[in-house]
Amino acid sequence: MPDGNSFAARLARQRAGQDTGGQPRGPLGELLVIGAGFGRTGTMSLKAALELLGFGPCYHMTEMAGNPGHFRLWRAAWDGEQVDWRRLYARYRATVDWPGCLYYRELMATFPQAKVILTVRDPDRWYDSVRDTLYSLKTATDAYLDESGRRHAVQYENRIWTDTFAGRFTDREFAIGVYQRHNQQVRDTVPADRLLEYQVADGWQPLCAFLQVAVPEQPFPRLNDTQAFRDYNRDALHGRP
């Protein structure tokens, strides 16, 4: 029997507008939480947790496939052009993962009341996870690209490999250095009272304390491990629901 709480099931419900999360904490378009952590640091679990707490919808790279018009705005941001962040996030209350994590400073300036969460994990485990999921997907998608939103998402992911990682992601030491420097930059940039450095393994308590909300009764969501990622994207590439 399919798992209704799986990564794929939750993502499908979100795209269909059926997984709205808890009682909204504020108006749409006013980001309350900015995720500054790189992908594969528990960002999908954090997205689900924030939505359960009422900080949803929460933007994540997976949103790009369903919003191909966003690609033009992200490309403009990458090229150093002025971006209307409020327009891009008009239907959201939070953001995590790539690409938003690369623009946490701009988002902090646009949404001065927002709090910042830096998701982290062991650097070697982070590298292995990215290599075995996002980077391996990069090499597997070329034969399946079409004119859908997935094409745009893959194009943006390629900018991460060529720009953020300077085309050297396969150099483990170099890639881990990029990851660690980004995390340290966040620590050095964000005021301490506005920043939570967080590992999703720590669950609800530190997250809820930081956001000043009650701990929910539901278990903390654990989503999108390496095998779930592979299964979901394998089915998506072959057109299976």
Keywords:
241 residues, Rossmann fold, globular, alpha/beta, 11 helices, single chain, 5-stranded parallel sheet, 7% strand
Total helical segments: 11
C-alpha Rg, in Å?
A: 17 Å
CATH topology: Rossmann fold
Helix content bin:
40-55%
Shape type: globular
- Parts with pLDDT < 50 across at least 5 consecutive residues: 140-150, 228-241
Strand content: 5-15%
SSE order: HEHEHHHEHEHHHEHH
User: In the CATH classification, which architecture applies?
Assistant: 3-Layer(aba) Sandwich
Q: What structural class is derived from the secondary structure elements?
A: alpha/beta
Mean pLDDT over the full residue set: 83
What's the domain count?
Answer: 1
CATH class: Alpha Beta
- CATH homolog superfamily: P-loop containing nucleotide triphosphate hydrolases
* Order of the strands making up the biggest sheet: 2-3-1-4-5
Kindly state the number of beta strands: 5
